[in-house]
Amino acid sequence: MKFSCYKSDLTEAMQCAIRAVAVKPMTPILAGIYLRADGSMLEIQANNFSTGIITRIPVNTEVRGEVVVSGKRFQEFVRNMPDDTITFHDEDNMLVIESGGASVELLTMTASDFPKVKTPDTDHSFRIRTTTLRNLIKRTAFAVAKDDARPIFMGCCFEIKGDTISIIATNTHRLALAKAKLPESYEDCTFVVPADALRGVMLRIDPNDVENYVTINYSTRYVTFTFDNVFVNTRLIEGMFPPYERVIPTSSSTQVKVETAEFRRAVDFVALMSKETEYNTVKFTFGDGGIEISSNSPDIGGAGQNIGAEIAGNDLEISFNVTYIADVLKVVEAKQLNIELNDKFSPAAFTEPDNENYTYIATPVRA
Q: For residue 182, what pLDDT is reported?
């Protein structure tokens, strides 16, 4: 096998594929990346039996062939190659990688032993614009749980009702809900997809590609995503997703409108001090025509900043884990942000003006 390709193409493809490489493999082959060069295309596969990913990039193939190498090491060396073009060839059970005077040899594994990604039988399907799906994932997946104590909270719930799709993510302390219109109506359904697989899908979607669609096929056990030169097959998370509607406040006693960029800068500044507290705690004081954001550490000191805001209703002091506030500010697209609150013990709702399709809920810290 011998081929060459652009570093940027391969790096982007590997960011997606690496998510299906087994971290604690039952056999060494599952820690590998399968590469097959043929003509103008390189096919890359990863499969941990829970998630399988196939992605393809353009290459110049001189000698067709297939190999399997360590996925982690392959990604690291590709990412750090010095030149924009990389060449590959195999010899003596080694894959030789060369670029800009640098070279590395990686031991290969038998390609025929690699479990190729298969297309499972699915019962239903629907289509959604690639950029719409990317936006839904971006604005929700960050809110999932980080540990596997309760697997259902490590996934995003897909909910289809007619021509509307909702994606919901929660770790029980915060919740993100994003909605969008589909090109047509479909059968109502609900299923939960691992967030890590969705992040891999998102990485392969060009944010400027507004014309293409993702075809999503699903059954009671699996879901597949197919678009361009990407195929992702992942096992659904079993279990009942909680009734998320119950945690979304239906009224508020304090209403706030603030400039998103200014709020983001202030939160990021005070967050530098909150790192020294036990729960990354930051206090927000709403009143007197503005917001006071502060954090204090008995061992380090304190930090604070005041910013202007439109505030209606009752004055309020409330504390949050600052990560829960900073995370949503990274994905808010509107110039202004609405915050609705009730008291220092009740969840706060973050929404965008004139946009009913996005809601974020954060539970306060009892500080």
A: 97
pLDDT digits (tens, 9 = 90+) for 293-350: 999 988 889 999 999 999 999 999 999 999 999 999 999 999 999 999 999 999 999 9
Residue type for 288, please? D
Q: Indicate the length of the chain as a whole number.
A: 367
The full DSSP string for 258-313 is EEHHHHHHHHHHHHHHHTTSTT-EEEEEEETTEEEEEEEETTTEEEEEEEE-EEEE
Residues 144 and 133 sit within 8 Å (Cβ to Cβ): no
Q: How far apart are CA 58 and CA 181, in angstroms?
A: 33
For the chain, domains (ranges, CATH) are 2-113 (3.10.150.10), 124-246 (3.10.150.10), 249-362 (3.10.150.10)
Rounded Cα–Cα distance for residues 238 and 128 (Å):
24
On the CB side of 95, how many CA atoms lie within 13 Å of its CA?
31
Its pTM surpasses 0.90: yes
Predicted pLDDT at 366: 85
- Return d(Cα 279, Cα 176) in angstroms, integer: 21
Angle at 80 between CA 207 and CA 47, to 5 degrees: 65
Judged against a pLDDT cut of 80, whether residue 228 lies above it is answered with: yes
What type of residue is 79?
R
Question: Would you give the DSSP letter of residue 40?
Answer: T
> Which residue's structure tokens are 């992942």?
234
Q: Cα 166 to the chain's mean position, in Å?
A: 16
